[in-house]
Amino acid sequence: MKRIAKVLTITALLVSLSACRLFLGPDPENSPRGIFDSIWNDFDASYALFDVKGIDWKSVYHNYAEEISPGMGGRELFRVCSGMLEELNDAHVNLSSPFGLFNSGRRLDLMNMEPFSLELVKTGYLEDGYSTAGEGMFTYGTFKTKPSAGYIYISGFAKGENMGGSQDWIQAVNGVVKSLSETDSLVLDIRGNRGGLVANVEYISRRFAAEKKDYAQVRTKNGPDRNDFSSPVVFAIKPEGTVYAKPIVLLTNAQTISAGEWFTLALRSQDHVTQAGSVTCGAFSLSLERFLVNGWTYTVSVQKVTDMGGTCYEGSGLSPGAEHLVKNTGANIEAGIDDQLEYALSLLP
Q1: Total Cβ atoms within 10 A of residue 114
Q2: In this structure, are residues 231 and 49 in contact, taking their beta carbons and an 8 Å threshold?
Q3: Which of 4, 128, 243, 296 gives 97 a disulfide partner, CB atoms 3.0 to 4.6 angstroms apart?
Q4: For the chain, the helix, strand and coil percentages under 3-state DSSP, each to the nearest 5
């Protein structure tokens, strides 16, 4: 089955593909009603997740359209349009104007409630010889209390402004894994990982795969009707390069978003990997950027991403098993205690 091009981008906020305009008609009238209707109509034709979210988009229109009036100001129009998009609860849906940036993902509000400190990990848990690699994207070492266990932190899956720069940094993962080859087990930490490029997810995840497994199916909206989708494209993880296939605990939290969640979905297919920590954000779809005649921009999610069993985790996120759900507290972080990391260490042999 033909795979999506390697440049497929999943970001924490948006993917700027302004040249790709799906199902758009003539430019809207530059009036409050014209702007409002343009946004609603584009989502009606292009948004891929109405059924997943259980949203009656026509009812949403009627609920908010009555607030539109010819003489309303830009700020008030922005408020109404933002309210409409908030109904989607989608962290990849944004509305940008001179009045600010609105994001539809309600789970993003949880991010500041998920305390995490890489500095605490480095100074409080890792042996003094910890290192960085890949232009600082990887932090790795062994633990003071368990020298036989390795640790790798991945800060993101893309580097550079708008992710348009060189991604050669990913190749450093081979040296990182090789340096920890004598350890018996590993904590792989992607808490706070805000996403990046799926091509980078594929390259890095293969270094932690013991066997080839299909892990995701992707259907892309390709027409204006609700069921207009492409045939599914299947994504697989397989061992490649320098591989670490010993026991791994994968640490996630609500700040693990987008490409970080693709990485989680891939690693969860491997028997030697256990997810622990807290639930990820729940934002998987590619999003496209649109431009309005009044200068505003917005993004729309145009894909349905599921696991191989057909479950879509948009809006809900990927949860560790109930027995592995652990949350950090601000008080403990301040006291030098990372509860999630200490739990992960307790799982390692």
Answers
A1: 22
A2: no
A3: 296
A4: 30, 20, 50
Residue whose structure tokens are 């809207």: 28
Question: Cα separation of 278 and 219, whole Å?
Answer: 27
The tokens describing 268, both together, are 């969860």
Element (H, E) at 252: strand 248-252
DSSP string computed for 191-203: TT---EEHHHHHH
| Positive/negative CA dihedral, 71, 74, 75, 80 | positive
Distances (CA, A) of 159 to 4, 46, 96, 141, 165: 21, 29, 23, 22, 7
Asked whether the CA dihedral 144, 149, 150, 156 is positive or negative, the reply is negative
pLDDT in tens, 258-311: 999 999 999 999 999 999 999 999 999 999 999 999 999 999 999 999 999 999
Q: Which domains does the chain have, with CATH numbers?
A: 9-105 (3.30.750.44), 110-284+303-347 (3.90.226.10)
Model-wide pTM > 0.85: yes
The number of CA neighbours under 13 Å toward the Cβ of 276 is 25
Which of 193, 199, 305, 200 is closest to 250 using CA atoms?
A: 193
